[in-house]
């Protein structure tokens, strides 16, 4: 197999618009056969897929990278398949995890699948012939155990599976790896072959941690005489070295039921200066020339680039109306006008039925993970209630703090700001 990485593309100039675009914008980490894939993309439209297990009722920012790569493929004339793991979620992908994923029941999986579909439907044209959401339970639920072992077991060796980083890292850490999880990579390989058989899918896109699983699918396809391709994306870390999409408040969810449009916008608006050029390339659809112009801005002018980044990404994920509303809220908040007309957080009115402390409010809004962290923020002088700095850790929220409509403003430092409405 002719494995190519981003380092080998410097002298390689693709003929296909899709591959050139993905490379120029920074999506390529590894590819199983770059030149053959380029020829395939040049010859005509292909079908590609990215898979998402239903471990939560929303995808998060970590999933946005493969989603954006798939959007570009669709924009350049190719057909995206969004594979949801109604079957594989019951097993759980062990890739680079120190412990097993919790097993979910069928009702929870179905609930999660509905949330994922709602996100994906906003991002793609899924009209007939343009794109499709497929659930791998369609075929995985039909397999009988002995038949599965007979048909596929001979194509996988434990020796090779032990060499994959995702498995080896778990074993080297002396963490248990169940047979259930060990079989996950077989299931993902079968997914690729089944999609090839059912909808002529020839390309799988996934994160760099999925390389071993993807290669297994490419190999399994080759054994049946089909040329399949794997394409992995770089592992994204921020300029500070943390994993992209992980914050003190937890995952940055794509579904507005898990994170408000303003909260999502604010995450991008607060990006580190050094991350802005790369994020503009990967998570917006702005022309590269415009991105170069925005990346050249310095000092306070760079804040304009951050607002453009935040509004562009929010528009793609939540819609243009939500992005415009979030921008208006952001202009007011970051301009010092902390009394807004639209709330950024809605909390149950029942919280005010009993004494509500500022510590608890900071946790409820997501500005602190615990009361202890909230205390440290107050001691540092970084907490403002209705534009006034609060230094009293035992500060309680009173009726006098509420503006008309049961609202108040809360801020931590210069970046994290909220208009809270109790409903």
From TrEMBL:
GO BP field: tyrosyl-tRNA aminoacylation
Domain of life: Bacteria
Pfam families: S4, tRNA-synt_1b
The reaction(s) this protein catalyses: tRNA(Tyr) + L-tyrosine + ATP = L-tyrosyl-tRNA(Tyr) + AMP + diphosphate + H(+)
Major subcellular site: cytoplasm
Motif 'KMSKS' region per UniProt: ranges: 243-247
Enzyme Commission numbers on file: 6.1.1.1
Record flagged with keyword Transcription regulation: no
Annotated residues for binding of L-tyrosine: 49, 184, 188
GO cellular component: cytosol
Location of the motif 'HIGH' region: 54-63
Assigned keywords, A-Z: Aminoacyl-tRNA synthetase, ATP-binding, Cytoplasm, Ligase, Nucleotide-binding, Protein biosynthesis, RNA-binding
Binding site for ATP: 246
Compartments where located: Cytoplasm
Function: Catalyzes the attachment of tyrosine to tRNA(Tyr) in a two-step reaction: tyrosine is first activated by ATP to form Tyr-AMP and then transferred to the acceptor end of tRNA(Tyr).
Similarity annotation: Belongs to the class-I aminoacyl-tRNA synthetase family. TyrS type 1 subfamily.
Quaternary structure annotation from Swiss-Prot or TrEMBL: Homodimer.
Name of the molecule in the record: Tyrosine--tRNA ligase
